[in-house]
Amino acid sequence: MRRRSFLILTAFAAALTLTGCEGVQGNAGALAFTNPLHIPPVLDPAPGPDGVKRFGLRLQEGTAELLPGKPASTWGINGDYLGPTLRAKRGDRVAMAVTNSLNEASTLHWHGMRLPAAMDGGPHQMIQPGQTWSPEWIVDQPAATTWYHPHPHGQTARHVYRGLAGMFLIDDDVALPRTYGTDDIPLIIQDKKFTPDGRLDEKSGGTFGILGDQILVNGTYAPFFQVTSQRVRFRVLNGSNAHVYNIGFTDDRTFHVVAGDGGLLEKPVAAQRFRISPGERVEIVAGFQPGEQALLKSFEGDSDVESGDFDLIKFTAAGQLTPSPELPAKLASPTPASQPTKTRTFKLGGSNINGRDMDMTRIDEVVAAGAHEIWELNNTTFAHNFHIHEVAFRVLDIDGEAPPEYMRGPKDTVFVPGKTKVRLAVEFGRHTDPKTPYMYHCHILKHEDQGMMGQFVIVKPGTEDSTSRTLPMTGHGH
Question: How far apart are CA 362 and CA 276, in angstroms?
């Protein structure tokens, strides 16, 4: 949405040294794809006598061969690197027991989940070493691919980069591929930098932090996947700290986007590429022919966080494929348009929002429960993206133009290229708590850690003006 000429001028004008981008040439053509794709195990407990599904999660140190034959120190959840795939459905009461076995405090945030602020897992819900946090809520939102990751203020980039992340699937009843690990496949895409001996290189680099020259998918380097059915559903999560991917097949085959961050689209959308920034999820269904091979890759883009051509994963189809049903013509019912009651404007600076750095004692916005609002994001500098906790929103326009059709479903995270204005129609939930905030922030994690984050509370309608804008705690500003 912005050309390279603009980016060059911006770089000179701002005197930026984009050391995080230097040398990131991609890996196209360099991989043998000899490692089977790791499929994270599923954690889907049966409800207990009280009707509650109880999940046990442990943040822990580990050792993993992220590069084959080269052990690296990592962090994981119930394992050495990454975490299990959690599953639930609408109406389930879920209870988490999150134990922190690390030697420093962390959190676990349920990214994309609509739930009370005290259960959200943001920087106000820190879990000290040796302690267990036990949030509980009722899943009350449409089917979606959500995920979970740490959210400690000032340390999120390091905690995610070391391996603390996993998917959380809210199951649907639509006629889409649904056999996990066979024709319903998670793809957690992360770029990494490695030292010569295979350890994670954590040097944060320049403006955007870590921009790696190698790719892991579900923690697997140079992965392949054996396709056994005519159609496969891929749940793609950009779990990287900063890199934005433009994903498609090298043969330019058409696939169908069926869902975004917040759930299913109204109908399948034919596409050959989709762009996905950190924290976003896109679900696609791709078709395969017996015996063929296909390569999924990320193509170099126009912005400063899309550099390099990256081969992601190779698919090899079996000689005989299990038949798959045709995609349904309709996936979800249209969402009726609601009249917004308020417009809020957010100026995205280099590492702040509206000229202010994050302060954990300050409430930046107060929102009435159930409100529908317009949020205008005015990016005055280089590339950012924007995530809002708890909500579902729809992208109205990008610099006055309608978004690509595959982006028109419910979302919670959006890419905002440099010098671009994006307008969102935001739907807020009904969990009220005037003293516990949700976050909104850039999900380029270095920017978030530097203070590019704000806080809002959801309150009973009519109490907005009487709600305190200060929280009774020690501040954590910048």
Answer: 31
